[in-house]
Amino acid sequence: MKIKNFYDVVVVGSGPAGGMTALYAAKNGASVLILERDREIGLPVRCAEGISRKGLTQCLEPDERWIANHIEGGKLYAPNGTSCELIVEAIGDGFILERKIFDAAICQLAAEEGADILTKADVYDLMWENGEICGVKFRHFTTPKTVKANIVVGADGPESRIGRMAGLKTDLGLNDIESTAQYVLTNISLEPHLCHFYFGNELAPGGYAWAFPKSKNMANVGIGVIQKRTSGKTAKDLLDRFVSEHFPEAKVISFIAGSVPTAVTLEKITADHLMLVGDAAHQVNPVTGGGLSNILFAGKIAGEVAGEAAKTKDFSNKFLKKYQKIWGKEKGNQQKVLHKLKEIIFNFPDEKLNDLADTLNTIPKEKLTLKELFKTAIREHPLLVAELVRVYF
Amino acid sequence: MKYRIIAEQCDICGSCAAVCAPDAIKISEFTAVIDQERCTGCKKCFIICPVGAITEVNIMNPREMSDED
Q: Are A159 and B51 a contacting pair at CB < 8 A?
């Protein structure tokens, strides 16, 4: 395993954001190195692993090796237990992935395009030359090393060390971080072809609980909450309560904690010789907290722009900003709208959520799209509609 | 008030570091660690930790501040 002293692009982080950036930069002719702090790509899995077919296939060909389950709709549960089904004809289908295989498979594709990969490589500083970023310092196992690069990509998750080292303000406000906890549970009974979502201010303040089946009797069962609103209870406390009420017979396969940035994208996701991608850039859907499809897309554009930059030898912010522009156009506005919607939806009192479920159940199932759902939810907020229009135009 | 991370409880998820404005939290292979010099006591990490691994410590009592206990 030989590592060069210099690469066009050094990607910090080997999740889907880093992997896709590396893949598309390498495809476009750049020399690429991926550095991963952990010992293994894809682990630990801090993810509910759901993605829509549309979100996946716009960036990657589905591969049975990393698909755990096929999903054909969703089921929403109001606080009083009333449920409302979203059917495949209205919302499309999707998958539950095996992220540990998925992440590694993307990096494998990048490697086939020529990218180098190091695990146990913990980046602790940027290298600077004449005031410009020119590489990274990292510990490989315990040995301090350096590698030079024309572009450093921070795909290093919500803590975004790379962004901070470069002087970008990346810290999240307390209303824009969902604290999450998730079990992989077995010995549970659920419709295995549906994703299940549970709402309620007692149950999950500022968020929701989910159960995404991975097979007939196994599922990712988790919760995301705004912990500022939980009066001292942690995501894990609330998840334990939820599981004991809904899946009392369940057995635990694994537990993981984490957080999801549900903010709008950072104002600056590029600088001279620098790009931020994925959770590090705050590119998650602020309502659902789902990140995979957005992040695959962001990684793809970032990689393409990095590849072009390597060809033209222009690593200035002015050039790299093309990535930010495409992101803004394709997803940025939508994300701003969803961020506003988040504030409304997660402030609904429980009675209103119960009423909403009843209203949704009067709409013909084949017409109940996500758009229709949001429209119904905000119908009683004319001021919000005006605000949403302002974001769009 | 200052804050400390209980290593045995920490899931090393990095959430605390994600909300830390003064960049006072470093994530190692085994736990997150708060740099007491940089910490401004803003409490954000304490509020959001998904597993409750952050504890308040009394800065007047140096024994509570020690990471070796």
A: no
Distance between CA atoms of residues A15 and A6, nearest Å: 22
pLDDT digits (tens, 9 = 90+) for A83-128: 999 999 999 999 999 999 999 999 999 999 999 999 999 999 999 9
Amino acid at A309: A
C-alpha distances in Å from residue A222, one per residue of A182, A225, A259, A364, B45: 4, 10, 12, 30, 21
Chain B: residue whose CA lies nearest to A256 = B11
Residues of B with CB under 8 A from a CB of A: 11, 13-15, 17-21, 23, 25, 27, 44, 47-52
Please report which residue ranges of chain A form alpha helices under DSSP H: 16-27, 53-57, 88-91, 99-112, 161-165, 235-246, 292-312, 317-327, 333-345, 350-360, 370-378, 382-392
Beta bridge partners of A385: none
Instruction: Report whether A121 contacts A81 (CB < 8 A).
Output: no
With 0-12 / 13-18 / 19 or more C-beta atoms within 10 angstroms meaning exposed / middle / buried, residue A318 is: exposed
Please report the ipTM that was assigned to this predicted complex: 0.93
pTM of the model: 0.95
Strands (E) in B1-69, as ranges, are 2-5, 25-27, 32-34, 54-57
Question: Smallest CA–CA separation between A180 and chain B, in Å?
Answer: 6
